[in-house]
Amino acid sequence: MVVITLEKCPLALRGDLTKWLQEISMGVYVGQVSARVRDRLWERVCKECKSGRATMVYSVRNEQRYDFRIHNTTWEPIDFDGLKLMMRPSSARTKSLGKKRLGWSEASRFSKKKGRKPNRDFELPSEYVVVDIETTGLNPNKDEIIELAAIRVRGGRETDAFQCLVRCGGELSDAIAKLTGLSHSRLMAEGLILENALTNFLEFVSDDLIVAHNAEFDIGFIQSACEELDWDDFDNDYLDTLALARKKLPQISDHRLSSLAERLHLENRQPHRALSDCRLTHCLLVKLNEN
Question: Which parts of the chain are beta strand (E)?
Answer without folding.
Answer: 2-7, 22-25, 28-31, 53-59, 66-71, 76-80, 83-87, 127-135, 145-154, 157-165, 210-212, 238-240
